[in-house]
Specification:
Elements (H helix, E strand, L loop, with lengths): L2 H4 L17 H11 L16 H4 L7 H35 L7 H57 L3 H33 L3
Helix pairs in contact: 2-5, 4-5, 5-6
């Protein structure tokens, strides 16, 4: 009796994949445009031009994080489906157990298997949450790095036109964005350490 539900496969029509963020292509474009060229940016003396101050990206590539997210999502959906099947079968067998005592071994097996499957689901969901969190902080870092690059490119133009006030304003914005990028570093590092445990 156990074979049919242990061999069950998730119905693809039930899956609801985590939709790809609409900003993902834009972010990947920004990453291609700004991240490799960060080391060559030219800024005024009041702005720290070092890569560490501008580019804080986790060691896992952004596209690899996206691939891991998709894989984790499928694994989680499959594990959740199996858990739901086992729970449903257990409920049915318990209804008929008084009239069909032969199903007691199957009930005992399911009662033993379901907690382990629930633990698997919990682990997979936690892994998926960590990947999503890492993706989010990387997105923030890419956006900030792009803003820094764009603002830095405008400073010489303002100085050439004699608009020192605008140049100083941009320098302040760049410094604030650099500080924000640096503030993301501990988050990226901490999450990536956890992700590395299962990647």
């Amino acid at each position: 009796m156990r074979s049919w539900f242990f061999c069950a496969r998730p119905d693809d029509s039930r899956r609801q994949p985590r939709p790809s963020p609409s900003v993902r292509p834009v972010l990947e474009s920004l990453e291609d445009r700004c991240v490799p060229s960060m080391n060559s940016m030219t800024v005024s003396n009041t702005v720290d031009p070092s890569p560490a101050a501008v580019n804080t990206i986790a060691s896992l590539p952004h596209d690899q994080i996206h691939a891991l997210q998709d894989q984790s999502q499928l694994q989680t959906a499959s594990a959740v489906f199996r858990l739901e099947v086992e729970q449903a079968v257990l409920g049915i067998l318990q209804v008929f157990a008084p009239q069909v005592p032969q199903v007691q071994p199957e009930i005992a097996a399911l009662q033993s298997a379901i907690p382990a499957q629930q633990a698997t689901v919990n682990t997979l969901q936690n892994q998926m949450n960590l990947l999503n969190q890492l993706d989010d902080v990387q997105d923030q870092s890419i956006i900030l790095s792009a803003q820094i690059q764009q603002a830095t490119a405008l400073i010489p133009m303002f100085l050439q036109n004699g608009d020192v006030q605008a140049a100083n304003t941009l320098q302040s914005i760049i410094a604030a964005d650099q500080a924000a990028v640096q503030a993301l570093q501990p988050q990226i590092t901490a999450v990536e350490i956890e992700v590395s445990a299962f990647v």
